[in-house]
Amino acid sequence: MSRKAVNCALLCGGALICAAIPYSAYAQSEPAASQSDIIVTAQRRAEPLENVPMSVVALGSEAIEKAGVVSVRDIGQIAAGVQINQAGAATQPAIRGVSTVLNTFGYENNVAIYVDGFYQPDFITINADLANIAGVQVLKGPQGTLYGRNATGGAILINTLAPSATFTGKVQATYGSFNERSVSAYISGPISDKIRFGVAGYWRKNDNYIKLLKPIPAGPQNPSKFAPIEQQSVRAKLEADLTDNLTATVGFNYGLVSDPRGYIFTPIAHSNPATIIPGLIPSTQRYRKAYNYGINPDAKTYEGTLKLEWKTDIGTLTSYTAYGLRKVNQDFDIDGSYVDAQYAINRQRSDSFQQTFDYLIDAVDHLTVIAGASYYKDHSRVVPPISTSVYGPGLVRTVLLSTGIKSDAMAFYVDGTLDLSDTLSLTAGARYSVEKKTYTLEGLQGLVVPRTSRSASFAKVTPRASLRWELAPRTNIYASYSKGFRSGTINQGTSILSIMPVRQEIIDAYEIGFKTVQGPFRFNLAGFYYDYKDLQVSLTRNICVDAACNNFVVFGLVSNAPKAEIYGLDGEVSFNPTSRLTIRAAGAYLHARYKDFTNATGTALNPTTDRNFTEVQDWSGQQLPRAPSFSGNIGADYTLDLLGGRLDLSANVNYTDSFVIQNPSLFGSMMGALANKQRYRQRGYTLVNAQVTWTDPSDHFYVGVYGRNLTDKYYQMLYNGNAGVGDYSTPAPPREFGAKVGYKF
């Protein structure tokens, strides 16, 4: 472990030691604030956090805002053991080292994301800012029984504000670095005594901290500036009491994410000689990139939802129905230079439908049961007439492919908790899932590819069981076993021979944990072991269309890594020494390694030519992507009186040890002592966020300032390479400052 990791471990350990010091050791001018109940829905029912026999990080809207968390990607800064990274334009969560590097429609994340109880298959527009948020829950470990398909690593539950029976609202505007402007607004209230509404809108745009490198010499259609980053969203809900026992909530959600950073392929090392960029010095021009013909990264989501809750004599029956339409434009310069070499255009559309029924039965003493069924259907495909196209010099099209993948999934599940005594409870359940995938391909890639279709079906039973013992009021220990899976799929290859089934992922997880809430202290600790099989991995290939490989097509194949082993320890503590001060800390140690993966395909380096090439590598014993050995955070919030109002001070420090962002490749067989070292690693780094907010005496008007990445730490959000372009990366945001002003009622 690096020295910085050790220091951070000591820092977090110090916080735990402080938590163990008796409260009387503190000189207090005010009484301590007792920890209030945190209610979570990790088991599809509302219950106190400390009674849930699994590891859950629960974040309220206030905690999210004070920690400087802005988007889904920032959640990992305050949830130890969680990484939210990116591959291309795809947002890809990792929990305890379980993640995916597949970023094509039809390859869904293996950390499931739900918004207001509805599954979110979209991995692009989910990268939205956290506006109108009531809270976030991060469920660690496989959730195969209750949250089902594609929850191998866990689930992230995002809840937005529900319509209010009284009028409430908020409007806020911010301005910050890189000409960042944002406006958000929310209003909710009654239409009648039985009908309520809530509407939220959000808009953000900035000029991007990544700038265009001045072309030397100028290339064809050089854009005048780098593409801006923009987000838009509208979320509307209408809630009605149809009867005394039946409530309906109708929702409409619109989202736009236009973020070009995932489409940057400017080479920084080991470049193809045909695409070397004169004037680019990677070590000093880290935030300078190049491209031709422009980047079009727009992704839009339109979603309609209906939730029905019917209270019966024995429990509550809930129905979730949703239809989603998602459209994605992907126009980008493959070679990332001003050379007129390779350009790609892609238009994709996805239509999805989901229906879930949950019946929570709680009329029997000492027994709570939830039984349910779900159906999910999705059709993702490219949209003609452009489809998926690759262009060579002069925008001469060299590849034209029409592809599509259909998913039909159904599941039945039951889960229950039985109180064996006043202090001992047993939870057990199981889920049966079945899914069919169909992939279709036709087009032109050198040779004519006739219309070809392949189908495969997958089925799995995923049980879970846990035992919880209440040692004292609000103090529990538990032991659990759970099985999770990620659905199998069809390899979306570009030739008939490469279209083949990919086995489903399976994970067996064992966990023991301790949770307690005592006065001003809250402490959670968990140890875990995962037996992880048939990991779905991406194997990159390059097809050269000339002898020197100056013109090429990059594509990926999906295969299964036989096995991985994951184990570790994570925990968190919060402490309220006074009603004005909250101190929180969390840390995670993680060992996540491939086992018996001798036929991986990696991007190696030839020291003679200084070019990348593809070779078969042995990744056995190598670290999984997005699985740092240590991560941790510590933060504090303090409130004081000022000018008749309230001044809130908050700060959060997050440390992440060195890790592979997305490509576990080794330097390779020609690199001597470096042969078995992973190439594309991000060094350990620390991020510091802080903000100050003053609220007027009426508790309506507020102003504030904030800073993110205050130490201006350079780190990368993308880091990869291939045999065609070379190595390329996208830097994460540098230091940012901003101010906000708002009004709430």
TrEMBL record:
Protein name listed in UniProt: TonB-dependent receptor
Signal peptide feature range: 1-27
Membership in a protein family: Belongs to the TonB-dependent receptor family.
Ranges for domain TonB-dependent receptor plug: 49-155
Keywords associated with the record: Cell outer membrane, Ion transport, Iron, Iron transport, Membrane, Receptor, Signal, TonB box, Transmembrane, Transmembrane beta strand, Transport
Topology versus the membrane: Multi-pass membrane protein
Lineage: Bacteria, Pseudomonadati, Pseudomonadota, Alphaproteobacteria, Sphingomonadales
CDD domains: ligand_gated_channel
Keyword Membrane: yes
Location of the protein in the cell: Cell outer membrane
UniProt superkingdom: Bacteria
TonB-dependent receptor-like beta-barrel domain span: 244-710
Naturally occurring in which organism (per UniProt): Sphingobium tyrosinilyticum
